Structure formats: C-alpha cells, structure tokens
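Internal ticket #5521
Category: modeling
Description: The requester needs a full-assembly model to guide mutagenesis choices. All entity lines are attached below as received. Residue total reported by intake: 811.
Assigned to: D.W.
Attached entities:
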Amino acid sequence: MSNGPVLNEAALRAGAFKMTPLRMGVMLIAVGVYWTSIKGTEMSIQEFVTGFPAIVDLLRQMFPPDWAYLKRLGWPVIETLQIGIISTVVASILALPMAFLAAKNVSPHPIVYLPVRLFLTVCRGVSEIIWALLFVVAVGLGPFAGVIALIIYCVGVIGKLLAEAVEAVDPGPLEAMSAAGASRWKVFLYGAWPQVLPLYLSYCLYYWDHNTRQAVVLGFVGAGGVGYALFFNISTYYFEKAMMAMIVLVLMIVVIDRFCLYLRQKII
Amino acid sequence: MNIEADQTTMVEVRNLTKAYGSSAPAIEDISLSFKKGEFIVLLGPSGVGKSTLLRCLNFLVRPTSGIVKINGQELGALSKKGLLQARHHIGMIFQEFNLVNRMSVLMNVMCGRLGTLGTWRALTYNFSPEDHEAAVRALVRAGLEDQELYLRRADTLSGGQKQRVAIARMLIQEPKVILADEPIASLDVMMRAQIMDLIKDIAQRDGLTVVMSLHQLDVAKNYADRIIALAQGQVTFDGPPNELTDAVIERVFNKPADEIDEEQTVEITEAPAE
Amino acid sequence: MTIAVASGVLDAVIEERRVSRRQYAIIGMVVFAAALWSAWGTEFNVPKLMEGLPHIYALGERMLPPDFSILKDLAGPMIETLEMALLGTTIPIFFALPLAFLAAVNTAPNPLVSIIVRLFIGIFRTVPELIWAMVLVTAVGLGPFPGVLALVLHTIGGLGKFYYEAIESTDPGVMEAMQAAGASRFKVIWYGVMPNVLPVMMSSTLFYWEYNNRASTVLGLVGAGGIGLALTHALQDFRYPEVVTCLILIVLILVIIDRISAFLRGKII
C-alpha cells in the first residue's frame, strides 16, 4: 500500500472470463438441451397467450369463494391433520432403529448396514403420492392408504438424515465415557444421544409440516382429507367451492408452518 | 513425595506392541513399570506413539501383544465387565476435554460415575443425590467454586474451565491412576501452569500415579518425576528430568535443543492415532 | 479433607432435574394422546394393518417379475419428466430473483411492496405443485406444458423465499459503504449483495432442481405429462409388471440426480 500498487496485467487478464473450446462446447450442449426441452414439453409463448384467457376465466369462476361451504370443510381439515400426525409419529419411531443400523459408526456390521441403506433409499426413492397410489390399489380408498404411504417415505428420509447425524457425532465424549468404564449402551445414551437428539426432533417437526402438506395432495388419489374435497370440486367444476377449499388449505399450511417454526426455535 | 508409597508398583507394562493393520507398529516391545505416586511424562513430538501407549494402559486401544497390569490386575485377562470395572479406577483426561457440549457441567461430571450407575437410573438420566453431591465436591476440588456455572451447558465455558470439568469427571471416579493425553495442548499459556499445578496437587495429595503425554519440554522438566522419551515406537530415554541433557533432547526431537522453544512446540498438535 | 457444599444449590439442582423430567413426561403424553386420536380418526390400527397386509402382499405378487420389455417406450416419458424439471427450475430464477429483491426488507423500495410481494411468494409456495398442475390442466388442457407451468409457479414461491432470506442475511456494512461511495440502488445490489448471496442461491436452486425432478414424476397423475402419466395408465389398466418397471426407473433416475446434485453442490462450496 505504501509503495504504490504494481498492476500485473497478465494476472488480471487470466482472472477474466476466457472462451475456451471446452466452455464453448458446454454452452452449446446447454443451449441444445434447452431447445429440446422447450420443444419436448410443447412450451410456446403462443400457447401460453392463447391459454391465458382460459386461466383468467377459470380465476373468474373461482370468485367469489363459496363461504357456505366452509362449515363442511371442518371434518376434512381434521382428517388431514390426523393423517399428518399419525404418519409422523409412527415414521419417527420406526426411523430410529433404521438410522442406527444405517450409520457406519454404530452399525453392528456392513452386512446389516448396506441392506438397511438400500431399503431407506427405495423408501424415499418414490414420492409419497406414488406409494399412496399403490396402497390405494392394495387396501382401497381412504386415509389408511395415505398414512402408510407417508410412513414409508418418511422413514426413508428421516432414517437417512438421522444416520448422517449419528455419523457426524463427536467421538471425543464417547471415548471419555468408555475410559470411565461405561458400557456400550451407556456410552451411546450419554455420549451420542444428547448430540443427536436436537437434530432428531427438528427433523420430526420438519416432516410433520411436510406430511401435513402431502396429506392434502394425497387426497387427489383418494386418501381423504381437504385434498379430496379440492380434487372433487375441481373435477366437477364447482370452482367457488374449490377456491374455498384452497383458502382453508393455505391457511392451515401457514398455521402449521408457523407453529413448527416456533417449536423448532424452542428446541435449538 | 511419599517414601513408603514409592515401593508399590502401580502400572506395569511388559513387551507391549501395538500395530495398526499391516503398517509398522505404533509402539513396539515396550516394557516399563510405574510406582505409586510417580509423575511420569511421556515426551516426544507428535506421531511417536505416545497416544497409543497411553490408550493401551486402559485398553481403549487393545495391544497387539504384551501385558498391561494396573494395580496388580492384568487387563488382558479380564472379562468385558471386569475391564469396565477396572477402567472405573483409571481416570483419563484429554487434549480436547471430550465433554458433551449440550449437557450441563454437572451432568458431564456425573458421567464419570456411569461405570457404577444402575440400569434404570441410567435409562432415565436420573443420577442419585449422592452422585450430585460428589460431583459438586469434585468440581470444587478442580477449582470451579462458582456454583452458578454448574447448570450451564458445557460449551459455554472457557477452555481452562472445560479442562477443570474434565478433571472433576475424572476425580469422581476416585481413580488410582491418572492418564492424561496432552492435557494442556489446547489451552493458552496462562492456563497451562494452573492446570498442571492442579493435576500435580491432586496427584500428590491422593498419592496417585500420573502418566501424561506432552510435547512441551519445559513443562515436562518442571513437573515430571521421571521422563520417558519415545521415538519410532520405542523408549529412547528413561530417567529423572535432570538427566535429560541437550544431547538426549536433540536425539528425541531431531533438532538442536535451543531451537525447541515454546512457539514451535505449540504448533504441534498430537493427531489421534488411527 | 471435606469441602462444604451449599446444600441449597444442590437441592435446587435436583429439584430442577425432577421438574424437567416431569416436563418431558408431559410432552411425551401429549404426543402420545395426539397420535392415539389420529390413529382413531384415520382408522390406522393393528386389525386394519393385519387385514391390509395380505392385499399388499397379493399386489406385490402380481407386480413381479417386472416387465422390462416396455423400457424403451418409457424413455420418451422419462426424458419429458427431466425436461419439465429443468425448465421448471430454471425459468423461475428469472422471476424469483427480482421478486426477492422487492421482498427483502433491506433492498425493498418500501415496506408495503415488501409485504405484498411476500404474500404472493407465500401463496405460490404454499399451494402444492400438484394442485397448480390440476388447476392449469383444467385451464390449458392436458400435456407437459401445464406441468411445466405448475412447477414454475411453485418454484417461484420456493426460490423466492430462499433468495430473499439470503439477501436479508447480507452484511449491511457492505451496502452502506457502497451507498456512501455514491452507488445507485442497482449498483449496490449488483456489487454489494449479489456476490455474497450467489453461493446460497445456487445451492437452493440445486435443491429445487432435485425437488422438481421428484415432483415432475407425479405430475402425470393429473394429466400433466411425463413418466407419471405412463405409470397412471399402467395402473388403471392393471398392468402391474409395467408399474414396477416405471417405479424402478424412477428410483434409479432420482438416485442419479441426487448424485449429480451432490457433485455440483460440492463444486459450489
């Protein structure tokens, strides 16, 4: 700073963007992918413009919302909430042993740990709606199929996240407790569990929120709740009622979102 | 120092070897014996097997071959349960303190009693009032008189305070032997003397054997009754501090003695042997 | 040597542990009660589970072995799904970015704009993409196009929120320094805010790319194209071995996407 800066022009230029053949190739490929995507999905401004009046028309039909329909939404809302609660509680209990079997540092043996990982991957590999679709075929319409679908997906996700949390545990306290003569399970309970617990609780809360949202959507495939009310009213062109259901649904999701945020702040 | 206590052998190691996998052994064919009340410092730069030797003394690391006897008990011959009971009387402190950050100071100290805690109490995190009282005594003895601190989370404390909590956790075990793995390496210079004085004081009052790994030459000379220097997994020097001449130091640290000052040794941190 | 222990402190400690244990017990009981109530309401119980298991087993039996002969017919719909996700993630960036700057309290022209924009972002995000798809299919007809629009709408909301939170977390000092140097509002945003928030934005966009790939596999259920449509058709016609082939393909593709995303994220950070 004292002697006055010496500009190294070569270094400055090297830092600037340079068109290399590789970059050129990547850009060409990107443009190609976009072009085929736009063609492939039949996207066109024209179609959007011609479709736009239809969207506006739909919106007009949705207003004003049918307020009288409100009182008949009470029970579906409760059912959606119940689906969210029971699936989260059951999934978070089932995910616990799965996570410990899937975590490299506490799993008894690779023979256990690999299949459990694979199982968790499959559980979360398919989204809960597809699971619900399958279970509706197997066990019939109703919330039961939805609950099972949410549980399966949720075990997959919480199990994986928790396994990662267990793997990230600081080994120092575990060593100290072993050195003090604590047995394996005591070391785990006092050394590892306090480190994992806050993460576990926050995942459970997050997925409670998530499951309640998904419970709405599961109504589309016949798993009950507000989602079904919405689906039914749209497919039968009762748009004012659909709008009412939509409003209730958004409110419900916002309230739960806030509540979860509040609880999570209490934990951490 | 207690003359009468000097006679009993507290720790005995014979032909101890530990190799990780197929690589060259971390320690090889070490035979040593420590008396009751002796303050022993294992000296040497990082990676010479100090950590491994220390962890072989309570079987946190199972030696490949050789015998370890603590207070006349051969650790290798003990059952799983017997080993846990033996460990209960061997205290250990660490460079990184190894406290559970999210637990209170008091809970951390009481974890020293896990070896004797009943199953139901352990499951419900319910230590007895006696354990609480013992924890408070241990904390006071470790120099944490401020009872405001006891319910605070461990990660809110300073480094020196954390090491005092770790010392309290060790004290509550009522140990006969203290193993200390670089206990002052993560502390600032002011704290180091205080913690060393504390350990020395506890060891002298209770007549405990201390085995401590260190890489700070000056600290080792000030506090040790006996210094054991390691290089390439073997003992290269074993004797009182005044016999540790510059020639020996050069051999141990692989550089002239006057170049080993505080600044250089501070940077060396012992990587845990893996 | 004895050390006096202030017994008051000790009693207080033990009492506090007792109270907190009781609190945990109460929370546990509340959760348990809520679970019971929900199990009752959704008829989720052991008899029902026992009753359902043979049916699930029977369905599984009819699904196996998977019919891999249709794999080449699925390539088209699968590619369509990936295309929908790509467009559904990249198009919203151009809308979410300006909206985020209007919504973030430290860059919004005035608080009222911020509140209104946030409201819109919130609505876009709260309504699930499948509901958007359904509404749009009703408006513009079947096909992948309403699927893309649905993803776009939902993602504008999702990315918008991530973006404005990132913007709000930037260091006010940097912006102040630029304002002091006489930079215009646009320049403050471009040179003071963007460099700080770019990594967060890129990683949240990647997150939504992953999310949209997953979401676009199900949009077909409401007629919005992609592999979901093939799956629904197979399911409606009871061609269960084909259903399994679809599922295997979906899982495989999503795992690959996860890997790519993790790789790209590693490059960013």
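Resolution: model delivered.
Comment from assignee: Confidence is low (pLDDT under 50) at residues 1-5, 262-274 of chain B.
Ticket closed.
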